[in-house]
Specification:
alpha+beta; single chain; two-stranded antiparallel sheet; 15% helix; elongated; 53 residues
Length: 53
Amino acid sequence: MVINPNLNPEERERQSLQKEEYYVTLTKGRYKVAVKVIDIFGNDTTKVIEMKL
């Protein structure tokens, strides 16, 4: 992603942040949830958490 340096700080922040959200209705049971984060340097971290509803 290329960020335009001529944008004001608010526009630059809006352009630089990307997020994806998913919503699902779940029934009772055990689930694994994965969260992946990628920082501005391209480093990524993934964490998997097991949940019980």
